[in-house]
Amino acid sequence: METRRSFCRVCPAFCAIEVDVEAGRVVDVRGDHADPMSRGYTCIKGRQIPFEINDPQRLHTSMVRTADGGFAPIASEAAMDQIAQRLSEIIGRYGPRAVATYGGTAAYFNAPSLPVVKAWHRGIGSPMIHSSVTIDQPSKIIAVGRHGFWGGGPHSFATSDVIMLIGTNPLVSALHQMGGPPGFYPKSLRDARERGMKVICVDPRRTETARLSDIHLQLQPGEDPTLLAGMLRVILTENLHDVEFCRANTQGLEELRQAIDGFTPEYVAHRAGVPAEQMIAAARLFAAGPRGCASSGTGPDMAPHPNLTEHLISCLNTVCGRWSREGERVGVPSVLTPPMPRPAQAFPPEMLPGEINLALNTERSRIRGLRQVIGEMPTAALADEILEPGDGQVRALFVLSGNPVITWPDQERTLRAFAALDLLVCLDIKMSVTCRRAHYVIACRHPLERDDVAVFQDRLYEAPYAHYAHALVPAVGDLVEEWMFFAGLARRMGTAIELPGGALNTEQLPTTLDVIDSVFTGAKVPIRTIAEHEGGHIFDEINEVVAPPIPGLEGRLLFNPEGIVDELREVRAEPVRTAGQYGKDGSFSHLLVCSRLKHVMNSVGHDYPSTRAHQTFNPAYLHPDDLQQLGLTSGDVVEVASEDGAVAAIVESSDDVRRGAVAMAHAFGGDPREEADVRQVGSSTARLIANDHDYDPISGIPRQSAIPVRFRRLPRTGGV
Ligand SMILES: Nc1nc2c(c(=O)[nH]1)N[C@H]1C(S)=C(S)[C@@H](COP(=O)(O)OP(=O)(O)OC[C@H]3O[C@@H](n4cnc5c(=O)[nH]c(N)nc54)[C@H](O)[C@@H]3O)O[C@H]1N2
Ligand SMILES: Nc1nc2c(c(=O)[nH]1)N[C@H]1C(S)=C(S)[C@@H](COP(=O)(O)OP(=O)(O)OC[C@H]3O[C@@H](n4cnc5c(=O)[nH]c(N)nc54)[C@H](O)[C@@H]3O)O[C@H]1N2
Ligand code: SF4
Ligand SMILES: [Mo]
After folding, report:
1. Residue intervals in the chain for CATH 2.40.40.20
2. Distance between CA 405 and CA 385 in Å, rounded?
3. Which is nearest to 660 in space by CA: 706, 587, 591?
4. How far is the CA of 11 from the centre of ligand 4 (A)?
5. Beta-sheet pairing, 99-103 with 396-400
6. Count of beta carbons in the 10 Å neighbourhood of residue 64
7. CA of 170 to the centre of ligand 2 (A)
8. What are the C-alpha distances in Å from 677 to residues 279, 576, 619, 649, 672?
9. Does the CB atom of residue 441 touch ligand 1 within 6 A?
10. What is the pLDDT of residue 578?
């Protein structure tokens, strides 16, 4: 038996692992205690890797749909021949815009995957590239595109005196927007508190993170814009802001001040349900700093007004001057990006490069007046792009490492769209419920069967850390890597894949190391050097320090970019809704919030032995007093109905949930074609959402949190 080092790719924490390999098989996985970032941490999901990689349910050969609706094995090369042929016909008849791709989360856990697919799309001339990011937290990037960017970056977690975590629960999600090592955040958060760092948590639930906080603002779901406007108002009224920083580097403070004037502590208390003194105390604690940041997760970005929320978070950081100044260490140094100056100055929206510059995202969707953001088309419009006839209608879709049938909002529309496609090709390691609707399923290698570099962490870690993992075990069967499949199509179709390091040779495929090297051409440390280290490594030679401002380059961060004042006015004019009176007609009793569960990663892990032994469904968590008021007890089966749909769910009592709220995880519910027991497959929150109203006008992300719902008891065995 041999022990090798790698990193887990079940979730975006990428914990370093030690893997025992015997006769080419993974037999055990543990945390890697020698890793300087994750220091031996793994969670229950990571420890299921031996099951996942050896699971008999895995695909070992690609599949083609047969005339009777079943599937037959097909050699990957033959599948590529047939798919390339179909694509050429579709492009010849309808043009390249008829071909679209959706990359799911696992496409982000695979360094060469999305860059190659995006380059393939450029090669065929189709702008229709989509990913999970536009149904996740697109507002964070939109906010930078409207507020501007500070060259020196934000304060680091390690040097923070106070942090405010808004709608994120890193103790479960391992997501960490502020740098610092995710994955074992419980420990890093506890350590930081021991050194005196203060934590403010904003969440309708008393989460694991809230329990470690000094102040928990347990707001009504969806009221983040009101709460944040109120906190800004306190800071500005009490002159707690960084006057000098604002004078030298910002624009529009007076307009912002006026626009938030109506968000008095009394109004915020009444509307957001947070006691006025508590909100004021949080504003003062945050402003006292002197160092630290506010950052958010999915919660407020899935609720109404996500762009306004993210803008107000940026404003909170900027009014308090929470940006690194000349001579300080750069918070997140990033090893995989090329060296670039990090000057202590503001870059206003018009100076921003490429994908974060909203004005440079010129492609338009045919649907709802939506647009390209972050260089991608909006995923929430893709179902309608398939359904809507006319020039540019999407006919062929590639689903790359995602599971849209259960993860896209508006499941009913997704199902109609998938049934209408001329060609659906899914790339996966297992036969997901989405794969079951495909014309071709391409069997891919498991992460431990291929080379990779930990790219997701590169923009989050506060140390110059990089981790290259070599393939540990041979792939069993006819398995391809995602980039190889698109290279195969490009060769057959005679199109190019231009990567930063040059054109990919599709005639004679390079190694994955070569492709990764090409994708990260110009990285601060060459990929080949990173690959020489077994396990994760901190490259101390990268010592990024914030540089002086570039002479002659003038720019300011904007407090009042176009639309912000109007949106604040709109929010202030909204009727104040309280429990029992939600929704357009005021007839919905609760607001449904999204939240994540420890045992599963979106739709992944539902079949892990640890999950099957623990819990196979996603309970609807309600406060015990609400349950009593509804005449329900834990374990009861109910119908949860929104304005747009209804699902069966199992209620569970939790006094961590605010009254008037109900919390459920997404990506449950199994195959919607099959009648199944809700206890076995859980409930699909995607069925409670419609994409064509209550959506963000820039990214199109619909309301995926703070959804008005009501309950009706069902017979104990029932389904909907
Ligand atoms: N209502 C509601 N909707 C939501 C959300 C919500 O909170 N509420 N959350 C949103 C968010 S944040 C996200 S990120 C999306 C997630 O949406 P998706 O990304 O579409 O869903 P995942 O379940 O992450 O899909 C991962 C798929 O990749 C496969 N896979 C795993 N490893 C590999 C690999 O190495 N290669 C290949 N080819 N495939 C692999 C898995 O088997 C699985 O089928 O859903 C969004 N939708
Ligand atoms: N175990 C596990 N880890 C995961 C995932 C998983 O499915 N399981 N998914 C991964 C993915 S794809 C992502 S994007 C990240 C997400 O990472 P996080 O954003 O940290 O996800 P959650 O843990 O769901 O935390 C979101 C919090 O927002 C709160 N919330 C909901 N609505 C609102 C609101 O209107 N306002 C406020 N202030 N809070 C609200 C919820 O109660 C919840 O506690 O996690 C990743 N990690
Ligand atoms: S936290 Fe994420 S990366 Fe770490 S072991 Fe768990 S699933 Fe794997
Ligand atoms: Mo996500």
Report:
1. 577-713
2. 16
3. 591
4. 10
5. parallel
6. 18
7. 8
8. 43, 38, 13, 10, 12
9. no
10. 84
| Chain region(s) in the chain for CATH 3.40.228.10 | 151-326
DSSP 8-28: --SSTT--EEEEEEETTEEEE
Q: How many CA atoms does the CB half-sphere of 373 hold within 13 Å?
A: 30
Please report which ligand is nearest the Cα atom of 11: 3
Q: H or E segment at 296?
A: strand 294-296
| Contact between 134 and 378 (Cβ < 8 Å) | yes
Measured in Å, residue 473 CA sits from the centre of ligand 4 at: 28
pTM more than 0.90: yes
Residue 556: name the closest of 199, 143, 108, 147 by CA.
Answer: 147
Residues 431/59, Cβ–Cβ less than 8 Å: yes
Among 172-176, 238-242, 279-283, 336-340, the least confident range: 172-176
- CA distances (Å), 602 to each of 240, 403, 678, in order? 41, 9, 17
Provide the pairing of β-strand 71-74 with 62-65: antiparallel
Residues with Cβ within 8 Å of 143's Cβ and at least 6 positions away in sequence, in order, are 307, 310, 311, 313, 314
Alpha-carbon gap, residue 375 to 638, rounded angstroms: 41
Q: How far is ligand 3, taken at its centre, from the CA of residue 10, in Å?
A: 6
Listed in sequence order, the DSSP H helices in 494-649 are 512-519, 527-532, 564-573, 609-614, 624-630
604 in contact with ligand 1, CB cutoff 6 A: yes
Q: Which two tokens stand for residue 719?
A: 């389904």
So what CATH class is 62-130+392-538? alpha beta
Tell me the pLDDT tens digit for each residue of 354-388. 999 999 999 999 999 999 999 999 999 999 999 99
Structure tokens at 515: 């492709």
All CATH 3.30.200.210 domain ranges of the chain, comma separated, are: 2-54
3-class secondary structure, 494: coil
pLDDT in tens, 503-515: 999 999 999 999 9
Homologous superfamily assigned to 151-326 = Dimethylsulfoxide Reductase, domain 2 (3.40.228.10)
Pocket of ligand 2 contains residue 672 by CB under 6 Å: no
What pairing do the DSSP bridges indicate for beta strands 620-622 and 646-653? parallel
With both helix axes pointing from N to C terminus, report the angle between 113-124 and 482-493 in degrees, rounded to the nearest 10.
Answer: 20
Q: Work out the average pLDDT over 234-244.
A: 98
Atom of ligand 3 nearest to the CA of 601: 7
Each residue's pLDDT tens digit, 580-624: 899 999 999 999 999 999 999 999 999 999 999 999 999 999 999
For domain 2-54, give the CATH number: 3.30.200.210
**pLDDT, tens digit, 9 for 90 and up, residues 20-75:** 999 999 999 999 999 999 889 999 999 999 999 999 999 999 999 999 999 999 99
In short, whether 312's Cβ falls inside 6 Å of ligand 1 is no
C-alpha of residue 46 to centroid of ligand 3, in Å: 5
Contact partners, residue 522, CB within 8 Å, separation at least 6: 338, 500
State the span(s) of the chain assigned CATH 3.40.50.740: 62-130+392-538
User: Ligand 2 pocket, 402 CB below 6 A?
Assistant: no
| CATH for the stretch 577-713 | 2.40.40.20
The answer to whether 429 touches 444, Cβ cutoff 8 Å, is yes
Asked if residue 178 has pLDDT above 90, the reply is no
